Amino acid sequence: MQEIAVIEDPAAAEASLDPIRTSILRELVRPGSATQLAVRVGLPRQKVNYHLKALERHGLVELVEERRKGNVTERVLQATAASYLISPSALASVSPDPRQFGDRFSAFWLLALAGRMVQEVGKLIAGAAAARQKLATFAIDGEITFRTAAERASFAEELGVEVTRLVDKYHDAGAPQGRRHRLVVALHPALKETRAPKATNESNPGKEQDK
Fold first, then answer.
1. pTM as predicted
2. Is residue 6 within 8 Å of residue 125, measured between CB atoms?
3. What integer pLDDT is reported at residue 24 of this predicted model?
């Protein structure tokens, strides 16, 4: 089982987005039969079987083993990945093209770059798995709090200068054994945390419940 699989086929993407099939994929991180899944998701076994056939047809679940129980053969299946991402190539005719933007301060360009990354890295993972090779990647994820918008702008400017310096230092377009790599650096606001409303006493909504 892969950690993450990238779905490129539009039909497979459509199949994965069905709420029932999504819950089945989540449950099939652990192998299970249609009978076992029916109990887990609270649906009739026949209905679960119908959805399992669709998921298996699109390569989202795979057969693990077959068990003989009397006159019946029980099929045990498992999801092909623990998690899934839908590649922009599944919506090829409407997926964003980074070449249509180019403004480094544009959130739309950032989205287009992120979409391209999902598409390209997904194909690279599939190729590396087929070749039984490890894929060389590198990523940094962190948070930074700026005191002012001016400091944020200064940071972005300095970061751009430093990245350009490193690219100039290590880039060699004429290297005979060289391998091109994609570099994307992103900075965007973090989502604000949403806090659940405080519970109130039903008989007196203005009074908080005793803790």
1. 0.72
2. yes
3. 93
